[in-house]
Amino acid sequence: MRTTLPMLLICLLASVPVAWAEGEPPAAAVGPQENPFTAHHRGVYHVVQKILLRAAEKMPEEGYGFQPTEAVRSFGGILGHVADSQYYFCSVALGEENPAPKIEKSRTSKAELIAALGEAFTYCDRAYDGMTDASGADLVVLMGGDTPQLGVLGINHMHLMEHYGNLVTYLRMKDIVPPTSEPEFMATVNE
After folding, report:
1. What CATH number labels 4-18+36-186?
2. Which of 73, 110, 124, 147 fits a disulfide with 77 by CB distance 3.0 to 4.6 angstroms?
3. What's the gap between Cα 104 and its chain centre?
4. What local confidence, expressed as pLDDT, does residue 68 receive?
5. What is the structure's pLDDT at 32?
6. Phi-psi sector, 38: left (phi>0), alpha (psi -120 to 50), beta
7. What is the per-residue pLDDT across 90-115, written as a single tens digit (0 to 9) for each?
8. 110-129 and 36-58 helices, crossing angle to 10°
9. Are 101 and 66 spatial neighbours (Cβ–Cβ below 8 Å)?
10. pTM for the full model?
11. Euclidean distance between CA atoms 81 and 105, whole angstroms
12. Distance CA 13, CA 16 (A)
């Protein structure tokens, strides 16, 4: 874990310019701040939220069951998994019991999954908004190992972007332009 976490954080930080390629970085990511590390994570997280919600909105209802092969989740299944994972990672960072709503197994429609994803982001907002650089250094147990709270949120970012990559492929297979390839949309993510 000692070498894994720094490597994961490097990967996370290396991906940030891609999200900001079409616009200015979020206000939380520039200028001197009282809590620059957590402000940076919060800014990146809010950009990723908008990108994932936009991807969910772009896929038509009939595409939510799309599964390129039986070995992978459907488009809707990925969104349900992402929502469930938000509760997992953020409950660890918050020091709370995971509410474990089992969204992936219980929701299938576009409207249900977009609503559930929004609720999961609202739950996670508490973890991001309540953390300072000092509290971000506090250790919690994640997957059996000690991890700084801010590290848990960094892993959450990576997990979100991993699955956004899946969604991009599914959207492209349906001839739908993904959000990060829409200059007009990307110009708005920092607002």
Report:
1. 1.20.120.450
2. 73
3. 16
4. 94
5. 56
6. alpha
7. 999 999 999 989 999 999 999 999 99
8. 180
9. no
10. 0.82
11. 9
12. 5
